[in-house]
Amino acid sequence: MPFTKVYIHCVWSTKNRFPFLNSFDLRQKVWQHIKENALKKEIFIELINGYSDHCHCLISLGNNQTIQKTIQLLKGESSYWINKNQLTKQKFEWQDEYFAVSVSESIINKVKDYIKNQEEHHKKKTFQEENISRRI
User: Fold this and answer.
1) Looking at beta carbons, which pairs linking 1-7 to residues 24 or more positions away fall under 8 Å?
2) In the chain, where do the E strands start and end?
3) Given phi > 0 = left and psi -120 to 50 = alpha, else beta, which region is 90?
4) Nearest to residue 105, comparing CAs of 9, 10, 11, 7?
5) Within 10 A of 18 (CB to CB), how many other CB atoms are there?
6) 54-85, pLDDT tens digit by residue?
7) What is the spatial distance between Cα 53 and Cα 94, in angstroms, rounded to a whole number?
């Protein structure tokens, strides 16, 4: 049986970056659900967090998992669950696009710290400001 250890840092936003996930409690509920759902699908989420308009996941991919399929499963089921449970006032949607980058095992702790500190981080800089500065 093959053994792989491939870490991927994934980020995806809400549709049009609308702040659907506008409370800490709602975000925690959604992140917990995504983790529980991922386990059922044998997707290993090392860490998940985010802010009102986006989600960060550190995922360890399995031997037969692709980035595209893994993110599709997480986003699709979670948006269905959020709408089914009427957790937002409007119909909830994730943006189609996503960002994914491989992470060296040597910097896993730095990436985890970054993901853990999303609440504080985005009090200083919005998701849009951060993305604009990355493109320049």
Assistant:
1) 2/63, 4/61, 4/62, 4/63, 5/60, 5/105, 6/60, 6/61, 6/102, 7/46, 7/58, 7/59, 7/60, 7/61, 7/102, 7/103, 7/104, 7/105, 7/108, 7/111
2) 6-13, 44-51, 54-61, 99-103
3) beta
4) 7
5) 16
6) 999 999 998 899 999 999 999 999 999 999 99
7) 9
Distance CA 2, CA 4 (A): 7
Closest CA to 55 of 108, 100, 4: 100
- Name the token pair of 107: 């910097």
Tokens standing for residue 105: 């095992």
Q: Across residues 84-109, what is the average pLDDT?
A: 96
Average pLDDT of the chain? 90
| Lookup: tokens for 45 | 């989420």
Residue 72, token pair as written in the block: 């599709």
- Listing from the earlier edge strand, what are the strands of the sheet with 99-103? 44-51, 54-61, 6-13, 99-103
Return the amino acid letter for 34. I
Cα–Cα nearest to 52, from 13, 28, 22, 31: 22
136 in Cβ contact with 129 (< 8 Å): no
